[in-house]
Write a structure and sequence with these properties.
The chain contains 11 helices and 14 strands. The chain is of the alpha/beta class. It folds into 2 domains: 105 residues, 2-Layer Sandwich (Alpha-Beta Plaits), CATH 3.30.70.2170; 201 residues, Rossmann fold.
Amino acid sequence: MEELKWLEVVLDTTQDKLDDLCARLTANGVTGMAIEDEADFKTFLEQNRQYWDYVDEALAQHMKGLCRVKLYVTDDADGRAQLSRWLEGIDLPYTAAPLGQSDWAWSWQKYYKPMAVGERLYIVPDWLRAEPVPAGRTPVYLNPGLTFGTGNHASTQLCLAGLERYTVPGAPVLDLGCGSGILSIAALVLGASGALAVDIDPKAADVAYENAALNGIGRERYAVRAGDVLSDATLRDEIGAERYPLVLANIVADVIIPLSAAVGAWLTEDGVFLCSGIIDSRAGEVRAALEKNGLSVIDSREQNGWVALAAKPLKRP
């Protein structure tokens, strides 16, 4: 089998503009990115002092206040088309360099460490599986690949924390925009009986199934479908064959708003729609759409400028 090739895309920005850049990238569909700053540069220098006696002052000055955002796409037509979508509306120069498979562990995996989320969950990159899990924590093992969510983003962490509160043991979960599968897999680890996951990107299915297997979850409990629930009537019918006590959507406001008109048909009478990926400036707009479509917001959480909302169907008289 031919080795898959990747491009490492690097955008330079400054600390004061970093949040805006990351927010725009996320809104454009980026779910995995690595961030380097001046502190990383200084750490690199300290750890490699044996290789030089001094650092060029011009280089040190160039790195002062600099932040770098790194993205990874496949080095093919699909990857370049994806990159074009990701960079839409971003007027920054960037570099794109081939990344060999041997470089992958150092250039990407080094950014991911086990991470405690909420009160119970512990997200563990699969290459660190051997490390001990803290007492009282439930591990979720993940091999995110290069383009799907890992749990580091605030919107995903908000959803993961919400899962601890709203997952119903012994009942199924619907995950819309599943990416790596992290949310539905975490729900299964927390006791959900089964999960149906959907993503518009066909590549997500392989990633999500792989991550499920890492957690001992087979296809008898976990199904992943590719498609757009907003435009694919057949897919909507398949989803609608069952009602769910918990429906998840960690996407963006522009998708959650139209989705709010459909999700009520998939919820049980007392079910919860947990949605995230909402920039704080648009939280009011999303809340209004939920309420317009017969859902009552019962919980709102915010982290680093991102908002997650939990909503239930309004009780009928």
